[in-house]
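Action item from last meeting closed. Structure (220 res):
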């Protein structure tokens, strides 16, 4: 398992995202999913994922919210910064989400496309006193059980192609294409010429077509 950034910043990252979600929800009266949606669209999410010290350690949770809203074009009078934070459900959601992102290395966008902040909060009663690894196991099982479409299928549908159209345009055998979309074949082991042809046709990078390894998702 390759973590997103060094452990020396992990405590700060967990605390700050916890404070940010708590402040957004309990002070700014935003829904956690709405705030995280703005956070993901902003430049801050990618910097957070990369472990940029200014973002995960140099900014407070309140400052993360302020800059997120500013980048999102939200103009409103902001409540005073919170000084003390209780371990609220909202705080825990941000806190444990930061840990999960660090542990798996997955983007916030990918994580929250699989499980919403609302769903994470529903796990609070059962998991907030449990080890962090328990949360990882539960979320990974949910992701596996939902049988998410492959990235290839998502990109194909976004481009507006049927499987046959993509096959004809890319030159990749239709049956082979169907096997990659159904995971009968592993896209991560596809020949470079296939990845290149599909990426060129879909207007994406070859890396965009690769799936997460199950060992990575399982945290092994």
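Sequence:
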């Amino acid at each position: 398992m390759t973590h997103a950034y060094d452990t020396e910043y992990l405590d700060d990252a967990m605390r700050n995202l916890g404070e940010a979600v708590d402040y957004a929800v309990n002070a700014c009266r935003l829904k956690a999913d709405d705030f995280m949606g703005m956070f993901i669209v902003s430049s801050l999410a990618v910097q957070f994922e990369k472990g940029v010290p200014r973002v995960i350690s140099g900014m407070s949770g309140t400052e993360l919210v302020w800059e997120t809203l500013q980048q999102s074009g939200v103009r409103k009078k902001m409540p005073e910064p919170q000084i003390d934070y209780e371990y609220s459900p909202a705080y825990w959601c941000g806190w444990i989400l930061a840990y999960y992102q660090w542990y798996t290395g997955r983007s916030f966008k990918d994580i929250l496309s699989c499980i919403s902040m609302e769903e994470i909060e529903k796990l609070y009663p059962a998991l907030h006193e449990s080890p962090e690894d328990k949360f990882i196991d539960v979320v990974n099982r949910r992701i596996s059980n939902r049988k998410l479409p492959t990235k290839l299928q998502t990109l194909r549908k976004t481009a507006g192609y049927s499987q046959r159209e993509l096959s004809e345009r890319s030159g990749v055998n239709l049956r082979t294409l169907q096997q990659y979309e159904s995971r009968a074949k592993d896209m991560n082991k596809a020949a470079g010429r296939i990845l290149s042809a599909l990426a060129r046709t879909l207007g994406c990078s070859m890396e965009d077509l690769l799936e997460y390894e199950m060992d990575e998702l399982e945290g092994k």
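Note appended to the action item: Residues 10-27 form the longest helix (18 residues).
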